[in-house]
Amino acid sequence: MNIHMHNQKQSETKLAIQQAVDVRDAQLREIALHIHANPELGFTEHKAVQWLTAPLKEAGFDVEVGIAGLDTAFRATWVGKEDGPTIALIGEYDALPELGHACGHNLIGTAAVGAALALKEACPDLPGKLLVLGTPAEEGGGGKIYMCEAGVFDGVDAAMMCHPRSKNMVLRGGLARVLVTFRFHGKQAHASANPEQGVSALDAMINSFVAINSLRQFVKQDVRIHGIITKGGEAPNIVPAYCEAKLYIRAATVEEVYAVKEKVYAAVRHSSEAVGASCEIVEGLTYAERNNNKAMANLFKDNLEALGLVVEEPPPSGGLGSSDIGNVGQITATIHPYVRIGDAVPHTPQFREAAASEGGMVGLNQAAKALAMTAYDLYANPALMQAVRDEFEQWKAAKEAASPSRA
Q1: Helices (H), ranges, 219-293
Q2: Cα torsion angle, 75, 140, 51, 328, sign
Q3: What is the CATH number of the domain that holds 241?
Q4: For the segment 181-204, what is each residue's pLDDT rounded down to a tens digit?
């Protein structure tokens, strides 16, 4: 087949992919709106998993629910007719406390399913294996981290997902992050009659927040330390014996998070000891920094533009959050692009409404198409797949060479 015929065939196949998504548009909207109307917190997304896996089962995917020891994690597999790469489309579907789907995860999981269904229908002879990986509890629970540790992403050549946002972007980064719970222990006493007999866990906590604030001029500009008080005492006339706070510590890399957290821990310990209290430090999961595969991101950009969308550059600095997709990017080539659904800012009531709006539904359709088209590029053109893998392996080798633990 000459180059002209090859390019024509690829164009025809991508048009077939788009048409396959459009045929399912009503079905995809229904799934996304069902999930939106029934928000489920991390690791409890049973309804969402049922709605997302049902059409995959019907289409002939081999569906496993409860993988990696997580009740609401799933893997749907379709094996093509020939050997080839293994590509994973990643779905998220957990909601936020109180705010529901104010991050648009109802769209992310549905887009991954829509892309997989369209790709299987339009390209039944593709070489390789297609996975849909349902990843629970991105909002703090770190479902992908557990799945990484269980080997779910081992052997995956490329992984991709698409997140709703206010802009179309393909190379926005993400900070590394750790969640830390600080449990302050003092001694209870009557705050008026016998204050000298008490040790205030609240004072230990307040002093700790002040000490952490004093660190801010001595950390890099991209470092973020922020948190809340989850327990501040029982009553104003009781010296608090127990108080608790939760903080996120973020930085550009996991290594920098570790360096910053040691400063934070020292500040908290000394602040507690200063009033005679103690502090128990409980560390949660660490979300790694995002490792965007530029070769794959550029393919996604081309496909968004082929759909008539304008792709913008991410802000040169600031504006970054954290996601457990970063941990996947440490294992295999990964992208986490964004599709515009409106002007609202994530984690707000306005964004929750956008995730169920007509703009959200259009973004869902566009995301499913771009995911399927990008996966098709990698299946159909071994040179493109090789470029993606070469970039990842070069990144991995450079990271290992720079690691302080390297002998």
Answers
A1: 254-274
A2: negative
A3: 3.30.70.360
A4: 999 999 999 999 999 999 999 999
